[in-house]
Each structure stands twice: as structure tokens, then as C-alpha cells.
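Example 9 (inverse folding). The structure is encoded as follows.
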């Protein structure tokens, strides 16, 4: 399930302790995931930026009809540095339960290069595996989610190019320029599998288009209120509560 959410750069829901006094900014949201007209889960996030650093922690849970079939949960935490719009992770942790298997991973970045501290359960190396030392300049899935869905000034909306690495797989999220419509902004984007995926996944599908809708929020910022996306299971929507 982290493949569906994290790799669409729209993955995870976040739970964070109350913001510390003196924080430069805080951000939070809660989304419903809707597939085939039915509520399939929730995605929430809350983040803090202060003193040139950011912290975002997350949880995604299945809900509605999906939870009846299988209970899925993802918890993650990312922290790093922030300079203007740029986010650079220093550490990322995740724990996932797909209902069939549980996994954990921890990564750290030094000089922009990731290192896998822990990835469990371990497995034998595969021919398509990537060497983390060759993945400089990438960010983790949770940081990518925050960069995509956080409130931003209208002048900074959309226009993103993000390279993701989750410890095994590399992917890319791109957002084109915003298009004004009825007081809102629409941003066309794409999630793409790049490398490190099993051959069957690459043969199945590599490109997943999506669209963000941003509407005015307090403080003169624009806020993502809806995401329309294509998944391997069909079309889906994230709707902000």
C-alpha cells in the first residue's frame, strides 16, 4: 500500500505533537481517499518548520470498505533542513503494515546522499536493486508528500520536480505551471517509476498522472483541497476535510 500512496507522492498521513513555541510555520491537513466512489482511507499531515529545519510525521490508514477487506497502516517521520522552498531530508523512518506483511526502514542523508540504516525484513539482493550511494539529490516519500501538499504562496504554487528514493526504489514527481480557474489554481502533475522496481511493475505501468486543485487559504496562501489521480487500481481522489 505504500507503493500506492508514498510513490504517488501523495502517501501518508501525519500525526505530530503540538508545535513548539517560536515555530516559523506549521501546516496540517486531513484528506479522505475515495476510490470507485467509496471511502477507502484517510491521509492526514501536520508539520513544523523552525530555525531552518522541518519535521513531518505521518500515518495513513485504510478505512471504509477497504478496512473491511484488509487493514492497512503506514507511519512515517522525516526531518531535515529547509531553505526557502527547498527541503533536504536528514533522516527518514517508516513502519508499514499491508495486512499481509510488516516492514520497517530508516534512512539518513549526508551531503545529500542517502544511506539505508535499516530495512526489515531483509531479503536477498535483486538484480534491479539500486545502490543508495548513487542516489544523491533524492528525498524521501514523506518529504515529497509535504512538499506537494503544503500551503504555499500563489507565486510558488506547482512547478515542482522531485526525485524520490525509499531505500530501494527511485521515482519522480513533477508538477507543471498552475492554471487559474474560478478563483482556484489547477496543477497537472505526474508520478513516474524510474528504477529499482521489479520488472513486472515496470511492464505494468510507469507513469501516473494526477491533478491538484488549490484554493485560497488564510494568510494569502494557496491550499490543496483536492487531488485527482490515476493508480494501478483505477482513478482515485483525495478530498480535504
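The amino acid assigned to each position is listed next.
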Amino acid at each position: 500500500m505504500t507503493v500506492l500512496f508514498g510513490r504517488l507522492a501523495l502517501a501518508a498521513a501525519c500525526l505530530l505533537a503540538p508545535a513548539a513555541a517560536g515555530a516559523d510555520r506549521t501546516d496540517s491537513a486531513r484528506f479522505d481517499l475515495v476510490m470507485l466512489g467509496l471511502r477507502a482511507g484517510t491521509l492526514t499531515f501536520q508539520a513544523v518548520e523552525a530555525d531552518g529545519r522541518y519535521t513531518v510525521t505521518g500515518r495513513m490508514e485504510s478505512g471504509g470498505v477497504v478496512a473491511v477487506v484488509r487493514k492497512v497502516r503506514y507511519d512515517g517521520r522525516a526531518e531535515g533542513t529547509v531553505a526557502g522552498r527547498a527541503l533536504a531530508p536528514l533522516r527518514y523512518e517508516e513502519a508499514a503494515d499491508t495486512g499481509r506483511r510488516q516492514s520497517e526502514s530508516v534512512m539518513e542523508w549526508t551531503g545529500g546522499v542517502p544511506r539505508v540504516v535499516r530495512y526489515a525484513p531483509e531479503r536477498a539482493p535483486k538484480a534491479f536493486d539500486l545502490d543508495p550511494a548513487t542516489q544523491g539529490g533524492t528525498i524521501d516519500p514523506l518529504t515529497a508528500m509535504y512538499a506537494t501538499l503544503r500551503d504555499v504562496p500563489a507565486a510558488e504554487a506547482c512547478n515542482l520536480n522531485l526525485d524520490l528514493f525509499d531505500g530501494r526504489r527511485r521515482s519522480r514527481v513533477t508538477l507543471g505551471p498552475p492554471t487559474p480557474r474560478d478563483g482556484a489554481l489547477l496543477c497537472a502533475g505526474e508520478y513516474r517509476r524510474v528504477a529499482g522496481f521489479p520488472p513486472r511493475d515496470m511492464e505494468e505501468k510507469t507513469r501516473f498522472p494526477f491533478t491538484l486543485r488549490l484554493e485560497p487559504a488564510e494568510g494569502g496562501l494557496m491550499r490543496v483541497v483536492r487531488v485527482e489521480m490515476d493508480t494501478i487500481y483505477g482513478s482515485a481522489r483525495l478530498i480535504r476535510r
